[in-house]
Specification:
Oligomer: single chain
Family: Belongs to the Dus family. DusA subfamily. Belongs to the dus family.
Keywords: Flavoprotein, FMN, NADP, Nucleotide-binding, Oxidoreductase, RNA-binding, tRNA processing, tRNA-binding
Structural class: alpha/beta
Strand content: 15-25%
CATH class of the largest domain: Alpha Beta
CATH architecture of the largest domain: Alpha-Beta Barrel
Distance between the termini: 35 Å
Radius of gyration: 20 Å
Number of strands: 8
InterPro entries: Aldolase_TIM, DUS-like_FMN-bd, DUS_fam, DusA, tRNA_hU_synthase_CS
Order of helices and strands: EHEHHEHEHHEHEHHEHEHHHHHH
Number of domains: 2
Helix content: 40-55%
Function: Catalyzes the synthesis of 5,6-dihydrouridine (D), a modified base found in the D-loop of most tRNAs, via the reduction of the C5-C6 double bond in target uridines. Specifically modifies U20 and U20a in tRNAs.
CATH topology of the largest domain: TIM Barrel
Shape: globular
CATH superfamily of the largest domain: Aldolase class I
Organism: Aliikangiella coralliicola
């Protein structure tokens, strides 16, 4: 069973394989998640493009988007064959672009269908199948509705529930607004753990510090960190020692950046553009002296034709002696 005390949320356009490799230089233990990958992309698109990852990324989970049980089961088998440690079903995305395909938070209105999806996926693979969802949708945001949803899905054997502690408003709010406007309600998630003590309950939403994560762990089994881990990734530097008891030599942001250089060289040699990697490391020196110089230099130069490791090295010169 994966140790999900700390995990990094699946985030569209952000947690691709380059970002995951970068984060793995900071924490070896936190569970990483892919962006949501739809069943259509796997079964009828370019599965290799969306599912490839390096062995260095373990423990790593793939998040699937879909609402057709048969297609989800087939996709789950493919994901297992790729070597993922876990398959997670997205029942939290509020985007109207995915609702028409019965993907994301709209599925909370159909707990029996979600249970069927989880059940057939679990039967098709030998790795954990988990779920990520909201506390509710639209007017269905009572604790009773949430508890009924969890109970229905748990009855088919789902053991791990990752709960974004906000309701989703399916019409009238953009995905960005849905991450900010509906208020956080952590007590609902705590109550789910109390009512279903045998389930693994992971809380998500609004976590900005490891101190906050520690406080949540007094009530639930794990904490999933989202946007803060992307914009300020070095907050993860103490995860392995603080939550997993790992002893290791302290390391700096400069060391993390330099550790990426061989990876960047390898990727450039296969045709990857520097900008596709560099965009993920803009926040490495967040809050540090000269950190804005690092961000600006990469933003202005990484996209240029034939940009290579020299761009990273030059940006490092701007922060050397000031950052830690």
């Amino acid at each position: 069973m994966l140790d999900r005390r700390i995990s990094i949320a699946p985030m569209m356009d952000w947690t691709d394989r380059h970002d995951r490799y970068f984060l793995r230089q900071i924490t070896k233990k936190a569970v990483l998640y892919t962006e949501m990958v739809t069943t259509g992309a796997i079964l009828f698109g370019e599965a290799q493009r969306y599912l490839q990852f390096r062995s260095d990324e373990h423990p790593v989970a793939v998040q699937l988007g879909g609402g057709n049980p048969k297609e989800l089961a087939r996709s789950a088998v493919i994901c297992e064959d790729y070597g993922y440690d876990e398959i997670n079903l997205n029942v939290g995305c509020p985007s109207d672009r995915v609702q028409s395909g019965k993907i994301g938070a709209c599925l909370m209105a159909e707990p029996e269908l979600v249970a069927e999806c989880i059940g057939v996926m679990s039967a098709a693979v030998n790795i954990p199948v988990t779920i990520k969802h909201r506390t509710g949708i639209d007017d269905e945001d009572s604790y009773e509705s949430l508890a009924n949803f969890v109970k229905t899905v748990a009855e088919v054997g789902c053991q791990t529930f990752i709960i974004h502690a906000r309701q989703a408003i399916l019409s009238g709010l953009s995905p960005k607004q849905n991450r900010e406007i509906p208020p956080l309600c952590y007590p609902k998630v705590y109550q789910i753990k109390q009512e279903f003590p045998n389930l693994e309950v992971i809380i998500n939403g609004g976590v900005k510090t490891l101190q906050e994560a520690e406080a949540h762990l007094q009530h639930v089994d794990g904490v999933m960190i989202g946007r803060e881990a992307y914009h300020n990734p070095f907050i993860l530097a103490e995860v392995d020692s603080k939550f997993y008891g790992e002893s290791s030599e302290p390391f700096s942001r400069l060391q993390v950046a330099r550790a990426l250089l061989p990876y960047i060289e390898q990727e450039l040699a296969t045709g990857t553009r520097l900008q596709h990697i560099a965009r993920h490391i803009l926040g490495l020196f967040h809050g540090q002296p000269r950190g804005k110089l690092w961000r600006r230099y990469l933003s202005e130069n990484a996209h240029k034709e034939n940009a290579g490791c020299e761009v990273i090295e030059q940006a490092l010169k701007l922060v050397e002696g000031a950052a830690i």
